[in-house]
Amino acid sequence: MIAAFRIPGAGRLKQAETARFSFDGQSYSGVEGDTLASALLANGVHLVGRSFKYHRPRGFLSAGAEEPNALVEIKRDSARKTPNVRATVQELYDGLTAQSQNRWPSLSFDVGAVNDIASPLFSAGFYYKTFMWPKAAWKKFYEPKIRAAAGLGVAPDQPDPDHYSARFAHCDVLVLGGGAAGIAAALAAAETGVRVILADEQADFGGSLRFESGARIEGQDGFAWAQAAVAKLKGMDNVRVLSRTTAFGYYAQNFVGLVERVSDHLQNPGRELPRERLWQVRAKRVVLATGAIERHMVFADNDRPGIMLASAARTYLNHYGVAVGRNIGVYTANDSAYAAAIDLKKAGVGVAAIVDLRDNPTGPVIDEARALGIEVNFGRAVIRAGGKLRVSSMTVQPKNGGGERTIPVDAILMSAGWTPSVHLFSQSRGKVAFNDETKRFVPGTYVQDCVSVGACNGTDGLSATIDEAYAAGAKAAKDAGASTVKGTKPKVDASESWSRGMLGAAPGAGPGTTVKAFVDFQNDVTAKDIRQAVHEGMHSIEHVKRFTTNGMATDQGKTSNMHGLAIAAETLGKPIPQVGLTTFRAPYTPVTFGSIVGHARGPLFDATRKTAIHPWAEAQGAVFEDVGQWKRAWYFPKAGEDMHAAVDRECVTVRKTAGLFDASTLGKIEVVGPDAAKFMELLYTNPWEKLEPGRCRYGIMLREDGFIYDDGVVGRLAPDRFHVTTTTGGAPRVMNHMEDYLQTEFPHLNVWLTSITEQWAVIAVQGPKSRDIIAPLVEGIDMSDEALPHMSVREGRICGVPTRLFRMSFTGERGFEVNVPADYGQAVWEALWAEGQKLGACAYGTESMHVLRAEKGYIIVGQDTDGTVTPNDAGLDWAVGKKKTDFVGIRGMARPDLVAKGRKQLVGLKTKDPKVVLEEGAQIVADPKQAIPMTMIGHVTSSYWSQNCGRSIALALVAGGRDRMGETLYVPMPDGTIEVEITGMVFFDEKGERLNG
Amino acid sequence: MLLIRCPYCEEERPELEFRNAGEAHIARSANMAGESDDDFEKFFFIRSNPKGIIYERWRHMHGCARFFNAVRDTVTDKFIMTYKAGEPKPAKLPGASK
Ligand SMILES: [Zn+2]
């Protein structure tokens, strides 16, 4: 069955191919190729939404991306709910389910509409004025209430199940906009052979040729020509044609962001299809062919459903075969609305009257309208519209006052003229210029390698547009490097052309205080609001914009900016260019988070790094923690163990027998070359020249400001070769820091730096039985204490593979770190594990590693230091080469504040109650009875339960800490104050005998 | 996203490959330990932060990994030129009108 307002034979859709859909629970039938808007209009539905602030009934204003009113929620399933979809852009598919927004309980009866009656409360700037006092109430009361009452759609409450893809592309000529101008430019560029991308936001190319029934190009209907031309472009290897693709942002150096809507128009998009695709295109030249947008007339109640742009009504008729009413009124200050009236009249739709604000316009369209018997009134204004849920009449009056006459209508078509779409040009940082004669802003000064053509450049008429666009396309191709120019310019046989129009408020817009003549439909801004803003002292258009919120809705003022500006200028008594245009910002139309995020979510959000030994730990049931991008085994619980039990057992076992620990994530850098030792001298505080090959040293790296940057054990493998270790998290920045100094400060040094973190797996074997575990597997290394003392390194073989075997300890026990090529990491680990099992060793994770090192007072850079700690603060003065004349940080370290008394120093803390474990980060005070806010003299940096010590242990940074040994200090917590005693940092084996135990 | 010309690779590459490394032409003293407090302050803390032309260091992190110098306009974000580390400040900038 054909819908009531579908006109048989009209439009371009195959009216036999129907699609079922529902809106607010009601079922309708549409036609394949419809938008949701055209399908609803075919069924006579105009009322589709409630406005943002006043909850006024709203219908369709437009037939395109500029739509401010017809925002709906499209629901595919419980997770796929998309709010604020413009019904004029959403293509229909069979089974589409849409709902109106911002109304309760229903669209036709909306309680929130009381705001319309109470509207004096909601005048311009009302948010700023009404809710300023009391200040605290804003957060607690006003803001939540306002957020609940205002707003449009509701955000989905489930994770987005769709996926999004992303592409980078390069081309010679990027053409944005696929109307007559864009197609002509693309043809000219493509025929030279250069790489061209042509993009348009619509499903079909053609732009305004969709409704311009009078256009004929190359002997055919303009729209048909567009389809043929695009088909030709699609067939060319050097051309990429993107439909349903919106260029939303124009960035530096001709970098343009586009979103392609891949599957929102499909009934059952397969899982293999992304919902959207983000294109990031770098173009040598950009051709902007973004067209123009028709403006509405500003008069009282111009927002009633059924009142729309003339070009929209024409599009619904000429493309979709839909009449937007049966008895139509026209209100215009511009010729183009006549064409709409003529097309509708010819299609058999009643046209009640044309009301033209102009005094005595002449032209062929006016003659034609009259010849068709349409009543035409000059010098008159529509001063208000009747009806509520649907327009029912228009009241006409001579524009300078006089008798009123009310004409019944069921739709009003408006045209105040056309605004060139300079959004992308403006985003490219180009400066617009005001053409006083045509009253429009057009591209003025260009900043990037782009050119505007056609309506967005203020060029009128199809012939002139195609001439300009074709020439610009060819020139862009030539500028981008094309040598051959061939092809011929499309020939225009017939075209439409119309003159200017008006800006600002029409006579029906006031000056009363209760008249609602809308300028910005989406943000409910009226002519009165803008005048009021000026009267209240907003003299800059940027202030007017923010005070009234004109142009700040998701449609970015596509229909409202120029009217708003003109009203402000008139009220200020200044010419428009002196008031200025607000800046256009990306995105041109709303962009989903999904398209920006693309693949970067879930497991693909960031790289996950796993060590060679990871699978073994996983099989053992290890619990992992994230350390940067690394997954590290945190602890290895046995059946029935919680974290504390597991860590207690691991810590005790290491000190009693031995433990294996995967230390592969440690950063490792090889410093090689004749000047390697000289370089190390400059990058670390320690002396290196005299370190014997085969020996290790704990190194401290500072920044130039004298603060600790990183630390680690360094082994000298040969006179010209150091194996440097860094903290796990510090590896990349230490490498960058070293490269920086080597390349730019010490380029005279003959040194090479190589990251070897990924190349070597590291297995720490720690504990009194560690040597017994390793020795049976090692070849070519004398493992005796004499041959391999603490802090030494040897190269040899283990399990038949090469090893760099370090004798070192981060537990205070006899210990080793076995480096093997990463590919052998797990095999060597398993061999060591088998040996360890024989002796009762355990595997331990990062938590036990932390406890064990804290028992010995070994610091962790980044935990016990925070970027403001010097070696002296950390008690590491011994590691600073006193005789050295230079190293990075040597001067910074000597700054007055860094050597002053009373600096925070690292110390140990013991709670008076040994069972109480302090919270890391807890603040420390000297006097717990002092008034709040208390003077905090330090904070806890590390704190653990130590099963080996039978009590809690902690490290802390405390002002003048080393002079406070034995002092009692206090840690105030929400549930009571904890007494602590300052101690040394070593809690276990103070003499260090166990290193050789 | 900006395009930056690496003077070592001799190619314009996307900004994603690069990392800024602060102001350029701030030489580290050969006698660092002997610097006065004032001189150290100038060297370490004081940066010009101009509105307009800035000389700064960049690293072609995900390319050749070399540090180099660049001249950039902080108003337009435009890279005016790049040159190798160790080369002097260019006496004349291409396209500079003043
Ligand atoms: Zn490079």
Structure, described:
The complex is a heterodimer of chains A (997) and B (98). Chain A is α+β, with helices and mostly antiparallel strands and 997 residues long. Chain A folds into seven domains: 1-157, Ubiquitin-like (UB roll), CATH 3.10.20.440; 166-292 and 420-494, FAD/NAD(P)-binding domain; 299-415, 3-Layer(bba) Sandwich (FAD/NAD(P)-binding domain), CATH 3.50.50; 504-580, Arc Repressor Mutant, subunit A; 606-664 and 759-861, Probable tRNA modification gtpase trme, domain 1 (Gyrase A, domain 2, 2-Layer Sandwich), CATH 3.30.1360; 666-756, Alpha-Beta Plaits; 900-997, Beta Barrel (Elongation Factor Tu (Ef-tu), domain 3). Helices cover 22% and strands 28% of the residues of chain A. In chain A, strands 8, 9, 12, 13, 14, 15 and 28 form a seven-stranded mixed β-sheet that branches. A seven-stranded mixed β-sheet of chain A has the order 41-42-43-44-40-34-45. In chain A, strands 47-48-49-46-51-50 form a six-stranded antiparallel β-sheet. In chain B, 18% of the residues are buried. Chain B has one helix and six strands. Chain B has a single domain, classed as Folate-binding fold, CATH 3.30.2270.10. Chain B has a four-stranded antiparallel β-sheet with strand order 3-4-5-6, with no helix packed on it. Chain B has a two-stranded antiparallel ribbon with strand order 1-2. Chain B has one helix at residues 37-44; strands spanning 3-6, 11-14, 19-23, 53-59, 67-73, 79-84. Chain B has 98 residues and is mainly beta. Classes of the chains: A alpha+beta (997), B mainly beta (98). At the A-B interface, helix 20 of A face helix 1 of B. The structure holds zinc ion (ZN). Residues 6, 8-9, 60, 63-64, 66 of chain B line the site of zinc ion. Chain A: Keywords: Oxidoreductase. Chain A: This is Sarcosine oxidase subunit alpha. Chain A: Residues 172-437 form the FAD/NAD(P)-binding domain. Chain A: Belongs to the GcvT family. Chain A: Residues 613-884 form the GCVT N-terminal domain.
